[in-house]
Every structure is written in structure tokens, then in C-alpha cells.
Amino acid sequence: MKAYFDTTILVAASVADHSHHNQAIATLELSQSGKIESYVSGHGLSEVYAVLTRTPFHPAVYPSEALKILQENILPYFKLVTITPQMYIETIRECADRGWIGGRIYDAIHLGCARESDCERIYTFNVRRFQQLAPDLAQCICEP
């Protein structure tokens, strides 16, 4: 099975006292064992780094630790999905046409990457928002 991982899953899997850690780490371990073919966007990796280094976790996650988390727990097990400049423009246009504001653009980018990689499952802790943005993918969008 091909699965796309949203930032929320990767952050939760990376922080032991995160409220969704157990759910997220179990799914991450499926990726690490090769039981699922896993995908993440370049944008998603940047978000993971930003959230890990900015959120007031206790203990704090320092930049070098965030890099280590990415290098050891994510990058070896995930295929990186990138989108073209044209796909960025189309995603922004779609958001504008639908009247979507703010951070929805980032979720739309995740969904575009999941589509681009033809994933059968999209893991997120923002299920309802993702389903609102992509009703055609609603059956694929779920929590771990």
C-alpha cells in the first residue's frame, strides 16, 4: 500500500509525549519495516522541522536534533514528493477560486502531493479539513 504522511503524523511520531504519539509511531513503524510504501512532500519535511524547532516541547527540540530526527527516522523510509512550479500556481489558483484562506494552502499542497504520488491512504490528524478540501479523496484520508 502507498501512503502519504501529513506533517501532523510525523511530528506526533517524533515527540514521545505528544498526545497522538502512540498512534503515529505505530504507523511510522510500518514505514520503517517496509510494510507500507511511504511518501512525504518536501514541503512536509520543512513543516516538520519548523514545528519541531518552534513548538514549546519539553524538552525542547533543537535544530540539530530536528535534523537528526529527519535523517534517521523519516528520510531513509520515505519517498520524497515534489511538485512543479505549475502545480504550485494551480494549487494557489484553486484556493483562490474556492475562497480558501490562510493555512489551507499548505493542506492543499499536501493533498496535491498525495495525488501526484497516487497514494491509496493519506494519514493526517486533520481528517475533517482534508476531506473538506478534497472530497474526492475522502475515503483515503484517515488517522493512523
Explain this structure:
By secondary structure, the chain is an alpha/beta fold. The chain has one domain: 5'-nuclease (Rossmann fold, 3-Layer(aba) Sandwich), CATH 3.40.50.1010. The protein has helices at residues 7-14, 21-32, 42-54, 63-74, 85-98, 104-116, 127-133; strands at 2-5, 37-41, 78-81, 121-123, 141-142. A five-stranded parallel sheet has the order 3-2-1-4-5. α7 links the parallel β4 and β5 (141-142). α1 packs across α2 (21-32), α3 (42-54) crosses α4 (63-74) and α5 (85-98) packs across α6. It is globular and about 40 Å long. The model has no long low-confidence stretch (mean pLDDT 96).
Overall 3D geometry?
Answer: globular
Count of discrete structural domains: 1
Strand content: 5-15%
Helix-strand topology string: EHHEHHEHHEHE
What are the salient characteristics of this protein?
144 residues; Rossmann fold; five-stranded parallel sheet; 5 strands
Topology of this structure?
Elements: E1 2-5, H1 7-14, H2 21-32, E2 37-41, H3 42-54, H4 63-74, E3 78-81, H5 85-98, H6 104-116, E4 121-123, H7 127-133, E5 141-142
Parallel strand pairs: 1-2, 1-4, 2-3, 4-5
How would you summarize what this structure contains?
With 144 residues, the protein is of the alpha/beta class. 55% of the residues lie in helices and 12% in strands. Strands 3-2-1-4-5 form a five-stranded parallel β-sheet.
